[in-house]
Design brief:
This protein is an all-alpha fold. It is built from 14 helices and no strands.
Length: 429
């Protein structure tokens, strides 16, 4: 099916897909480059232990955010693309939920958990500040989703450039002025507050007016659609972040720094590759309005490009992994290259699995995404609890690879099952 249908991709659809992907890829490169630069600056100016505390806090808050954000962004993008007459209500309701429920709930839960964990005061305070920082980030992701839904990917790109340059400047300047990680994070929070108001104004002027809406019946309807994705997002994030939390809890923040250095490279590459799936998501949603079968066919064509691209990246990256680590982090973290080689193979299955998830969401089958990712999460958590105490960060890397393979195989089988069902339905009409 994949090869047979690839040449049927219409010129208009291909042009829009390439346009969305090009902006999304550049944005991902900006995000990746910014995150790399910030990680390097923190490691070299503030030390590996400080980097470990930062990555540990980010991993813990990412787990909380994945559940409390309720998987709303992808549902909002889908509904925004499909229901033009309801766009103002959709974005206004979702933004109100993020501001008045998700962010306060994340702060309260993060505060409570940090008091229970056996961590030092620096790591505990870092968790609180990262919770605020990520809470603001959740609202930005939602607002940028409004641009993505109408295929205006250039605005998120421009905002991302401003965002990452500002964060890098703060991460570099404050340590030179003898500031510590906590002051750096306060600066990060200030940047995101400014960016929030800029993005909100752009959405109001370029997309649609936004008003805070406390229409609880509409909240319930939106949350009901999103909840399966909330648990699937938690599962997906747990697959990638639980290992850092467990390493920091069962080993040390130094182990988190070594593993996190490679994992940040993996996340950055994943973001670049997934820009193809993200760029195709509005198109998949539009195709799904015509028929589920056509959406799945479009997904298969995107999948061919993803597979070829990720395989080449994994091959080249594995060969030059040691040199990459030396250039990016220096000799202090050279042992990270073995972790990177494992994670680059996982990149192939992670990107294809993400495409399968977007395909299922576009045809309103997000509940199936939940089952695939929960299965991966249960395997990931169980295997990490068993292997991390014995094998440390190498065990965590192999578990990540195995988890991505499991999630992809399950997700792909669910997509093909839906394709078969749709094909039989059409034949019987």
């Amino acid at each position: 099916m994949f090869i047979r249908n690839f040449d049927r991709l219409s010129t208009g659809t291909l042009r829009k897909l390439l346009s969305n992907t090009s902006f999304g890829s550049v944005q991902s490169l900006v995000e990746m480059g910014g995150d790399f630069a910030i990680t390097i600056v923190i490691a070299r100016l503030l030390g590996a232990n400080t980097l470990g505390a930062f990555i540990y806090a980010k991993a813990l808050i990412a787990l909380l955010n994945s559940l409390l954000s309720m998987g709303m962004t992808q549902v909002v993008i889908r509904n925004f693309a499909q229901r033009e007459e309801e766009r103002q209500h959709i974005i206004s309701n979702s933004l109100t939920i993020r501001l008045f429920f998700t962010m306060p709930a994340t702060l309260v839960v993060a505060f409570g958990i940090s008091l229970l964990l056996p961590i030092d005061d620096l790591t505990r305070t870092t968790i609180w500040l990262v919770a605020i920082f990520n809470g603001l980030g959740n609202t930005l992701v939602l607002l940028n989703g409004a641009f993505q839904a109408i295929s205006r990917f250039e605005f998120p790109l421009y905002l991302s450039i401003f965002h990452k340059l500002s964060l890098f400047g703060i991460a570099w300047l404050i340590p030179l002025l003898n500031g510590d990680l906590l002051i750096v994070l306060v600066g990060f929070i200030f940047v995101r507050v400014v960016l929030f108001f800029i993005t909100l104004r752009l959405v109001k002027s370029k997309v649609i007016p936004i008003k805070l809406r406390f229409a609880f019946s509409e909240w319930v309807a939106l949350i009901r659609q999103s909840l399966p994705l909330a648990f699937s997002d938690l599962s997906a994030v747990a697959n990638g972040r639980a290992d850092s939390v467990l390493l920091g809890t069962m080993k040390s923040v130094s182990d988190v720094a070594i593993y996190g250095a490679a994992y940040n490279l993996y996340l950055g590459l994943n973001g670049v590759i997934n820009s193809l799936a993200i760029g195709g998501f509005p198109l998949l949603s539009k195709q799904a309005e015509l028929s589920h079968k056509s959406a799945i066919r479009l997904s298969s064509r995107i999948g061919i490009i993803l597979f070829i691209g990720t395989t080449l990246i994994a091959l080249i990256g594995t060969i030059f992994a040691k040199q990459i680590i030396l250039v990016v982090y220096g000799s202090e973290l050279l042992s990270t290259y073995r972790i990177l080689q494992i994670l680059l193979v996982a990149l192939i299955f992670s990107s294809l699995g993400k495409l399968c998830h977007f395909t299922l969401i576009s045809i309103h089958m997000q509940k199936l995404v939940f089952w695939a990712t929960v299965t991966g999460m249960l395997f990931n958590l169980g295997a990490n609890l068993i292997l991390i105490p014995r094998f440390g960060y190498l065990g965590a890397a192999y578990i990540t690879l195995a988890t991505e393979i499991i999630v992809f195989l399950l997700s792909f089988s669910l997509v093909m099952r839906q394709y078969t069902i749709e094909k039989r339905r059409v034949l019987h009409v």
